[in-house]
Amino acid sequence: MPLVSAKEILEKAKNEHYAVGAFNINNMEILQGIINACRKYSSPAIIGASEGAIRYAGFKYIVSMVKLAADESGLPIALHLDHGKNIDTIAQCIGGGFTSIMIDGSHLNFEENIKVTKQVVDLARPKGLSVEGELGRLSGIEDLVDVEERDATLTDPDSAVEFVERTGVDFLAVAIGTSHGAYKFKGDPKLDIKRLKEIKEKVNIPLVLHGASSVPEWVLKRATTYGAVLKGAKGVPEDAIKEAIDNGICKINIDTDLRLALLGAVREVLSENPEEFDPRKYLGAGRDAIEKVVSEKIALFGSAGKA
Ligand code: G3H
Ligand code: 13P
Ligand code: ZN
Known about the structure:
The chain is of the alpha/beta class.
């Protein structure tokens, strides 16, 4: 099946009240681990490639691999630029086989963010690609000292309405207390679900949660047992993810959990077998660990059987 746009995948998810994972890839094994899980559970997927991933793997490799994965699997798969900021890369993705673009203007002021986001919508829409915008800056709630700072950082519901109307984005990334990486909370994990509810009531497009990795116990334990130093690593609890889905989140971005799963598997194989040097042994174990993580996400997000 040819690649589809993320809009197509997410409109169905929104109507049927589930979420779809947007999984980041950097190489073939990561992609295969994701696709193996999607095949097993008949789930759609959004494959995210960051500008860094494109630099690492090469533009043509990313596009060719993901096209092949969609063709072979017969699943609805979108190839999405994650956190696009560079206009040349965005233009290359629009003309070069991606089916969805994120323009990340979250570091800009409101008017500038609207301006660049609208510019990307105008470039991408005529070619049939979907566009994600982001409003608000990702930050753990406990790092925001008072209500004023929280309001200035997290997504404001009324500004979200204006942002969506003026840019025409197909889906919107919101900041409600998650952050990227493995160290999301120092104290008790907390998301601003009240804010999310208000955004959902006012904005009628699929909403996106970045920084949504959960740092599962088994993944962390495997990696640290075999020497990884990840002191204080903490992710978004699975019940908070469920609550976010119940309140309008349809696209859930996961990278850290895949990285940690790959790391733990590679470390285990190499420590248990110090004489091993066949990459198929350690990367194969990494691929299997990614399949397991993605299978758990599919169950949590409710996307099984939705392909
Ligand atoms: O949110 C960012 C993703 O985890 C991608 O990270 O820019 O290091 O590839 P990256
Ligand atoms: P995590 O770091 O929580 O996996 O978030 C990934 C992400 O938001 C990619 O855009
Ligand atoms: Zn992100």
